[in-house]
Fold:
Amino acid sequence: MIEQCANLKVDLGDLNAFVAVARAKGFRDGARASGSSASALSEAVRRLETQLGVRLLHRTTRSVVPTEAGGRLLDRLAPALTEVEAALDVVNGFRDKPAGTLRLNVPVSAARLVLPAIVPPFLAAYPDIRLEVSAVDTYIDIIAAGCDAGIRYDERLEQDMIAVPIGPRVQRFATAAAPAYLDRHGRPEHPSELLKHACLRGRFSSGAMPPWEFERDGELLRVDPTGPLLVSVGAATDLAVEAAVAGTGIIYLFDDWLRPHFESGALEPILEPWWQRFSGPFLYYSGRRLVPAPLRAFVDFIKASAELPIPQ
Structure:
């Protein structure tokens, strides 16, 4: 199929447009991922289909999915385009500073708590790099999604990935509530008492609603409280925080996320001796492919910022 495309003198940009739309399952999302416009991608795919003489995408008002022919082309084309990008990226090594696009897939917590201290100075140091960050709380295959790297915690890392520490190396989950709520309902002194309180819960897009975990002197407790509000983890977490500040109930979240409210007095920490500590996140990327120059620059920047030696 690729040889046929070459014989037809298909434009490489049209092929990239098709891959972007097929991966994103939509023209708008494909446009955001590729830095183009939905109309430009639509025209490129239409032009490609005309040249090949076959429909590549099923289009409806709700979704865009590859046809059988489009699926087969995508399977063969994506690795080939990746190799082309890697080959062109070699030239980056001869520039004073790397250029190109770096695509990261990160959890919302990392976008809020980790990247703000890193992204501005990185982009200032590398003005020719364009950074695209997708913040979601679903675990995806970053390679299949067209991302260069992602951020995860160690329990979610795959064995064949290279992992580099990024951000704080120790984090905690905190429990807190507005002083007015605690004045009305009492201040719990043990995690089990949360079962008698209004608790603000979070649920992942997978449907999982993890219990609240606490640890003290080697004792690990898991509590599954209930309450008046359930939000989507990440996307609606700020709603739960604002509800806690308003006195609706008790929240369980990253200490760093709640810290400004502790300092202002809007929220009062509770059960602090039981707050569970865990290791910080990692930037991860595939070790089976050539590392693009923008990603190498980002990795080196993170290591230098952490005052770690950079391997040659």
The first strand starts at residue 57 and ends at 59. The domain at 2-90 is CATH 1.10.10.10 (Arc Repressor Mutant, subunit A). Residues 106 and 135 are 5 Å apart (CA to CA).
